[in-house]
Amino acid sequence: MNRIRLHTGCFPFIRDMGKTLTNEGWIHPDRNANFNVFIFVIKGQMQVVEEGKEYLLTEGTGFFLKSGLHHWGGPGTLADTSTIWAHFYDRVGESLPTKVVEERSLPSFRATQAYQLFTPSDYQYELVLPKLFHLGQPSALISKLKELYELYSSAPLFSHLTLSMKTMDIFLDIYRLSLKRPKLSSKSDAVVQKLADYLEEHWENKLDPEQIASEFQLNYRHMSTLFTSKMGISLFNYHERLRIHKSAELLRTTTFNVSEVSDRLHFTNP
Q1: Residue 85 has pLDDT above 70, yes or no
Q2: Cα-flanking dihedrals φ and ψ of residue 72, to 5°?
Q3: What is the pLDDT of residues 97-120, one digit of tens each?
Q4: Mean pLDDT of all residues belonging to the chain
Q5: In a 3-state reduction of DSSP, which class is residue 123?
Q6: Among candidate residues 247, 207, 206, the one with its CA nearest the CA of residue 227
Q7: Short-list 190, 239, 198, CA closest to 215
Q8: What is the pLDDT of residue 105?
Q9: Are 211 and 166 in contact (CB under 8 A)?
Q10: 145 exposed, middle or buried (CB, 10 Å; 0-12, 13-18, 19+)?
Q11: Nearest-angstrom CA–CA distance, 55 and 48
């Protein structure tokens, strides 16, 4: 489908940006460019053909054209069509090895990220941007794109670096919007989600199997086995990591010392 792969270890580099307001008979340029193109239609309709495949872009539609592929326009573009566009390079020079993120490789859900720590490998991914997407309420994205264009037009010192970072933010928003939101596929998923929420709410206390069994009206051993199979970590270890994370947060943001934090969270010793 000629989709652009966004490397998370490398910002998209803006070449140039612009706005288009078409007149009667306007057609998209015929070219084979060495840069990618992002187009968002604010109003009207634009016709673009890439490698022989026609796309009609209507109001609220965003579209990516991939570098190195022949694209052109036809007579399907309407007069007074308003767009904002950006030309960008997706990768410059050598990069670290990356892992491709496919939708099926994403976790079915992530109950909480409260204790998550990021490592360098978390920044070495390829995200496949949607070829075309449509927003029923595009005002938030349009606002971001206009701010990006204003930054491009004002050209403060090192504006191209800020442009790259803000473009990455917008493209990540688009990537997230393009994902099919995973639904909890079974009752077991729902139980694990509720367990994680419960642990998040009771992080100050030690894990109490009897209390949890009473709260959920389920066998604790069964719930613990289910949680481990879904989350890849036991209930106990998940809760302890959560409490350690919260302890570190208290040490950073309050005047409590280690002993006071330990007492507050009911650890057996500091």
Answers
A1: yes
A2: -160, 175
A3: 556 655 444 444 455 555 556 677
A4: 85
A5: helix
A6: 207
A7: 198
A8: 47
A9: no
A10: buried
A11: 5
